[in-house]
Give the backbone structure.
Amino acid sequence: MKSHSPMTNDIKHAMASFATGVTVITATHAGQDFGMTCNSFNTVSLEPALVLWSLRTASGNRAHFEAAGGYTVNILSHTQQALAMRFTKGLHAERFAGLDLARLPTGRSQILGCAAWLDCELERIIPAGDHDILLGRVLSFGVNADSKVEPLIYARRQFGKLSI
Ligand SMILES: Cc1cc2nc3c(=O)[nH]c(=O)nc-3n(C[C@H](O)[C@H](O)[C@H](O)COP(=O)(O)O)c2cc1C
């Protein structure tokens, strides 16, 4: 494994102060679901509705996401911390095992119980250093109707929930 320079470690330490939500990005290719935890997700444009997230170029998932031509952003709720860890490792079939899923019109899977979700067509892959930015156009989305479902938060390398 490549070791990071002191500068890279300092940047990672600084960025850890930037609190984010946590998503599991899912996609389907050749009849197989795959997915991974991601906190680089963000909004880009409202008209048209565009979003992005970044994927490590070294990730074994890169080719799958490119071939799938789209992805679903599952914005995790504060009760789904275990899912966040489950989608960081192991076989993809095992990541999805036993999960309550809805099948979207695009064929992609949406994880039930999330705070919100967005189903996106892959608009463009933009190379950016050791990551690729996956720009997506939002095709459909939904928000959990239960107002008690709060988003999962990630900051300082820890999971938490809103206390506002
Ligand atoms: C909170 C959190 C956020 C993450 N965000 C990203 C991300 O934005 N981009 C990324 O490439 N990996 C991210 N990861 C790591 C991936 O989830 C992990 O490398 C991936 O699931 C490994 O899958 P693979 O073994 O199939 O390559 C994150 C992990 C955690 C715990």
Summary: The CA atoms of residues 107 and 141 lie 14 Å apart. DSSP finds four helices and twelve strands in the chain.
